[in-house]
C-alpha cells in the first residue's frame, strides 16, 4: 500500500512528514531507518508522524534517522505549523509533542515562531549521569572543553570556541554524543560568539549526525551563551542552512524561535518495502 508523505525542511534540516490522522500507518525503528536512508530511501534527518490530539491541533511524534525517538524538534514544529496554516488558515496552531505543548504563530513575513517553553537547567532534568554544575561540565575532547548543558525537550551540550568551521565535527560529534555523562545521549552544539547578538553554530544531532540546522540546538546555544555572560537574551544564530532568531524572554523564561519552513515535494512510499 502506498503511503503519502511530504518532504519538508527548515533551513535544510529535512523531514519526511506522514499524516496519520486519517490513515493507519505503523512505523517502527527499522522502517524509520530505511526511509531516512539518503541512498536507498527518501532521505531525511527525522521522520515526523502526525496524529490527532484532544486539546491540541495535533500530536507530532519525532523519529530520528537512526530510528530513536526525540522529544522535541524546533525546525519540524515550524514545518508542521506551516502545514496546519495551509490546511486550516489558523495562524496560531498548538502542537503537542512528547516534551509538551508548543504554541506557534505565523508571522506577517511568512516565518514561523515557536514558543519552545522554559529550558530545563538542573542536572537530572537534562539528564546527566550524576549531579554536576550544568554551566560547566567536566567534559573535554581536544581542542574543546568546559561545555554548558540544558534541555529544550531533549538534552543539549554547547561548547564555545573560536573558528568552529575548522573543528573536526565528524570526529568530535559522535564521541561527545555518546559520552557516559549523557545517559540518553546528547545533541552537541559548537558555538562561536561573533557578537553579543550573533552566534555561529554547528550542531551534531543525537541520532542524526551533523544537520544543516537544529532549532532546539539554537535555543540551547543562546540559553547557554547568556548564562555564561557571552550573549544577550536575543540573538541571530547562523547555522549551516541559514539564519534563525532566538529570544529567551525575561518575564516568563520561555524561549522563542523564529525561522522559515518549506515544502520540498509530495510523494508516496511503500512502507512494506521501505
Characterize the structure shown.
It is built from 4 helices and 19 strands. Helix content is 16%, strand content 39%. The N and C termini lie close together (11 Å).
Summarize the structure.
The chain is α+β, with helices and mostly antiparallel strands and 274 residues long.
Kindly list the characteristics that best describe this protein:
16% helix, two-stranded antiparallel ribbon, single chain, 274 residues, 2 domains, Diaminopimelate Epimerase, Chain A, domain 1, globular, 17-stranded mixed beta sheet, alpha+beta
Question: Which parts are unreliable, with pLDDT below 50 for 5 consecutive residues or more?
Answer: none
List the helices and strands in order: EEHEEEHEEEEEEEHEEEHEEEE
How many runs of DSSP E, i.e. beta strands? 19
CATH topology name of the largest domain, in short, is: Diaminopimelate Epimerase, Chain A, domain 1
Give the terminus-to-terminus CA distance.
11 Å
Total of domains: 2
Structural class: alpha+beta
Largest sheet: 17 strands, mixed
Beta-strand percentage? Answer: 35-45%
**Judging by the overall fold, what is the CATH architecture of the largest domain?**
Roll
Classified in CATH, the superfamily of the largest domain is Diaminopimelate Epimerase, Chain A, domain 1
Question: In which range does the helix fraction lie?
Answer: 10-25%
Rg measurement, Å: 18 Å
Provide mean pLDDT, rounded.
96
Instruction: Give the overall form.
Output: globular
